[in-house]
Amino acid sequence: MGPAGSRTPLGTHPEFSGKRAPAVLLTTRGKTRTCWNYGQKGEHESHCHSSPAHAAWGPEEGEGTGHNGTKLGYTVTDVPPWYLCILLGIQGLNGALRLDLSEFKSPLVHILSTDYYHADSYIAPFEVQMVRQSPGAGVTQLIRTCQHFLTAMGGLVAIPLILSEGLCLQHDLLTQSHLISTIFFVSGICTLLQVLFGVRLPIIQGGTFTFLTPTLAMLSLPSWTCPAWTQNASLVNASSPEFIQVWQTRIREVQGTILVASCFQIFVGFSGLIGFLMRFIGPLTIAPTITLVALPLFESAGDMAGQHWGIAFMTIFFIVLFSQYLKDVAVPLPSYQRGKKCHFSPIYLFQIFPVLLGLSLSWLLCYVLTVTSVLPAAPTAYGHRARTDTRGNVLSQAPWFRLPYPGQWGTPTVSLAGIFGILAGVISSMLESVGDYYACARLCGAPPPPKHAISRGIGVEGIGCLLAGAWGTGSGTTSYSENVGVLGITKVGSRMVIIAGACAMLLSGIFGKVGAMLASIPIPVIGGMFLVMFGVITAVGISNLQYTNMNSSRNLFIFGFSLFTGLTIPNWASKNSALLETGIIQLDQVILVLLTTGMFVGGLLGFILDNTIPASQINVVREASKVNGVDCLLNLSLLPQTTKEL
Fold first, then answer.
1. Apex 20 CA angle, 16 and 21, nearest 5
2. What residues are paired with 123 via a beta bridge?
3. Prediction pTM value
4. Is residue 127 located within the same domain as residue 155?
5. How many structural domains compose the chain?
6. How far is CA 211 from CA 51, 294, 409, 553, in A?
7. 510 and 522 co-located in one domain
8. CA-based nearest residue to 211, from 87, 114, 303, 297
9. pLDDT tens digits, one per residue of 536-563
10. How many CA atoms within 13 Å lie on the side-chain side of 146?
11. Which end of the chain offers a freer environment for a tag, N or C, measured as fewer CB atoms within 10 Å?
């Protein structure tokens, strides 16, 4: 509770649930006067009431809580000390970190204005009582901070490795490492832009899987099919001009399509058109679209895991064991804390590092099997690609420092077919990001983002895709849903932590050895990780159905038909492309790319059917939204207009 007449930064109060976010909390003579601002910035229409001042912070002496009642160590408006930001950002964040005010040199803590969704909001000093240090906080909690960076790492590494086959790079590990470094570097830039100028929430930006399906569909066109000799490792000379020309022409084509398609996202975002589009796009459109992002990738995951199913299932076993069965098991680790000196503190190690531990143990097992000659040395033998010495040379070849720059692969080229295909990925990415913004706001103790913040966030993501196309990552950028989920685990929602994490991604992109190390992971280990990752993405897409009444035959038909057709038509089109020829090459390419992109087919069918088939039982949707902890008004804003009119 602050002194009389002081302003209290936006904490989350139980009374705020389901209401407009308070513009400011005024503390006067032991009473907190809560004011909800119903207008845009500069408007002063508000409604106020008084309550005990301590209630503004929620329970237990100033600990902020999220909209779901979760206690927060730092909310979105808090700025932890600089050393905490570095440690939390580089290694992510985990555990509810708390710090005593005495550790600051000044009693004035700079906190962003409560109207922090506005791009022109300023940093104003407020005299506040920070969250007190609780037992168990200190250096031990800093050790438990690797989650954000490591969580994003899996997705960032996966995209270049999946694209490598379409780009004819499956036998050029050095170039793969450069692509990994580039996507790390650009993701760091985009994260900084989003946190500082975009939606202004603690949300990580990284490569998007929604661009993979249309990109692979474009690269599978007859004009872009890889030459047969690039499939044979013994015939590939990575430094030869002929081979460089083969893969660079393909990635330049991908760059150009992303550059053009990103302009559409920039327009939709900064024009405010996203708010209008969301009136017609509901869960029955989003669910098949996101689900069909991952399902077509089963072949890539199966091919990698099939190099040695034993190693792949060992990786799956470790990841599932750590993330599901041992997540609540605490491991005592040595720690140091002022006042307690050296002591042992329980750390939920398996919950923090499930993927890292799983990959590391499987990688170590591959090394042991390699040095003991259990894995075959013959290149044509089954299990050879599980050996660590088949991909280890890239570590010695990669430079220590390499700065990615725009146009590093040459001047981008553009094709009409690629643009239409990537546009389907752009729309899917925007839909996913809007949901991430709302989820992130709830978890980090911020009010629901207004329309202008969502529009600005989508626009900045479009700029991020523009940068990704200029640098040549092979993909665009989007908000990472898995990192939003990390906020609920760590109870730390400060934007400064994400900024520090973005700086860590920038540094990882500059240090060439980091990308080389990640590119040297054995193929079956990557395949096992992909099976888990793509399975989760599929489940995330299906989980959007929780906001609909799945007892309705209408909803069952729309989702089932859209999903099944989104698998059937691309499969048929890829095998019967000759039947789709019109005689116009450019038109043939557009038709083939669109019909072989499952998320476009399924999403389009879901959109048309959801907005044309009459809906009913809106009350069931409202009840389902409340059961799942989401405000019913928020859900209704995501439903089609035909449904809302009921």
1. 70
2. 112
3. 0.71
4. no
5. 2
6. 50, 11, 19, 32
7. yes
8. 297
9. 888 888 888 888 888 888 999 999 999 9
10. 16
11. C
